[in-house]
Please model this.
Amino acid sequence: MATNANLFVDQGSDFQTSVSLENVNGDFLDTELLEFNGQIRRTPGSDAGFDFEILKSNTENGVITLRLSRQVTESMRVGRYVYDVVATDPGFNNRFKVLQGILEVVPQVTRV
Model:
């Protein structure tokens, strides 16, 4: 089952957060051989979406880092979105969801 985590992103800013993933036994998920993809959409059925850049930060401790550039967050409308992150194990051709939640884009006030 995927971990639920709600995220807040400042519009027009670089965004980065790290998450430690666990397996069903509560042990850290070894992410070394896994491939990750994650997307953000207004609703699950929306055609348009935004892709996370996902880095493996600490494979032994199940840590991945989600990133969005400020160019991406500038193009996002203020409000709530849904997102998820899926892992693929290419050796077993197995895909599973590891993270999901609500992502809220907070409006930018300061113009630089």
Q: What stands out?
A: The chain has one domain: 3-106. The chain is about 5% helix and 50% strand. The first strand starts at residue 3 and ends at 4.
